[in-house]
Design brief:
By secondary structure, the protein is of the alpha+beta class. The protein has three domains: 162 residues, no CATH class; 64 residues, Roll (SH3 type barrels); 83 residues, Alpha-Beta Plaits. It is 56% helix and 21% strand. It has eleven helices and 14 strands. Strands 8-7-6-5-9 form a five-stranded antiparallel beta sheet. Strands 10-12-11 form a three-stranded antiparallel beta sheet. A hairpin with a 4-residue loop joins β7 and β8.
């Protein structure tokens, strides 16, 4: 059996050598992968019980090891001990180099991302998620570009000419992608200036909603009606944005009218009682209240107050209570709300009493 395995060949190598190489690849893979899994678990346990930046970074980097890459590396290492000739052997070396570069890229990107998270985090969350996302994307692009250039250089590609061509192509791409670059710069502007952040309620144009995510190109907003709105960052910055989440208090202006014939004493009582009503309410600060104007058909009152809680529901509850109490006050004073009317006075002969009043709603003649 051993003699048969030694005599039979496949691709220039005996069957025995193929079996030995395959067994070494499988055993090597399971051995290295098992060590990595145990090491990652131990580091994670240590990071949970004794949290510090080093253990967190080490645990994250260990978890970034890719099992499929370890398997391919084991196969390539085992195959390198077989004799395939100089040409195939050189290609195997290049493949091995590329696989090692891929795994190194996974480790480096995870290392840089976890370090950035620890450096910019506040209470477990990034202090500025927008800038954090941009930096993370930039660092990952830089690492993968370096790995790609190293692999191409090892494969015999003229990297200098390749980089020069990328520079020329990059200019063309930049000119063709001005909109995307504008959105990217707008994303950076949002991250630095912070006109709004994730979770805040804003209004722009005729749209209202809560910020769900600020991406590299667009911002996603959950609208009040339930759907998700997506608007490019540059277009959003051109709008007048109302950030209601940063409102500390809400200014309210409201008014109502009573008929022209209401006596002066009643008008004075209305102003006093409504002012007294608002002043005695909790979580409310009265600014002013006046008999504001004498109109064509009514006497108009205007009141201004501040709700010290910015919640819209609190404001509506407060205004509802004020409206109901105003109805009670007018009922107690035997005064009605004004409605649009027109009074017409006429007489048949000079010097004789006129026949009046005759009241018409507008439009009835």
């Amino acid at each position: 059996m051993q003699a048969w395995l030694s005599r039979t060949t496949f691709l220039g190598n005996s069957t025995l050598l193929w079996i030995i190489a395959g067994a070494c690849a499988v055993l090597g893979y399971f051995l290295v992968y098992g060590i990595v899994r145990v090491l990652a678990a131990r580091l994670q346990t240590l990071a949970d019980h004794r949290p510090n930046p080093f253990t967190k970074i080490a645990a994250a980097v260990a978890k970034a090891t890719r099992g499929w890459l370890l398997f391919l590396l084991a196969v390539c290492v085992a195959a390198s001990f077989l004799d395939f000739g100089p040409s195939i052997g050189r290609h195997l070396g290049q493949i091995l180099y590329a696989l090692m570069g891929l795994q190194l890229a996974f480790w480096l990107t995870r290392l840089l991302v976890i370090w950035l998270e620890l450096a910019t985090s506040l209470h477990g969350e990034p202090d500025n998620p927008i800038i954090f996302g941009i930096f993370r994307w930039t660092m990952q692009l830089f690492v993968w570009t370096l790995v790609l250039l190293a692999v191409l250089d090892n494969a015999g590609v003229n990297v200098n000419a390749f980089v020069a061509s990328l520079g020329v192509g990059g200019i063309a791409v930049a000119l063709a992608a001005q909109t995307v670059l504008g959105d990217l710069l707008s994303s950076i502007s949002i991250g630095l200036d912070k006109p709004f952040e994730v979770g805040e309620f804003i209004a722009f144009g005729s749209n209202l909603g809560t910020i769900k995510r600020v991406g590299i190109k667009s911002t996603r907003i959950g609208s009040l009606s339930g759907e998700e709105l997506a608007i490019s960052n540059s277009d959003l910055l051109k709008e007048l944005v109302h950030n209601y989440s940063r409102m500390r208090e809400r200014r309210i202006v409201f008014g109502f009218s009573v008929p022209l014939g209401t006596p002066r004493t009643q008008v004075e009582k209305i102003v006093e009682r409504v002012r007294d009503l608002i002043e005695k309410m909790d979580n409310v600060r009265l600014d002013r209240g006046h008999f504001a104007a004498i109109g064509d058909y009514a006497l108009t009152f205007e009141f201004v107050y501040y709700v010290l809680d910015p919640s819209y529901n609190v404001y509506m509850d407060t205004q509802q209570h004020i409206n109901l109490r105003i109805m009670d006050i007018l009922d107690e004073l035997n005064v009605m709300f004004a409605v649009p009317v027109r009074v017409v006075r006429h007489q048949t002969e000079p010097g004789r009493p006129g026949l009046f009043p005759a009241a018409f709603a507008p439009g009835q003649g």
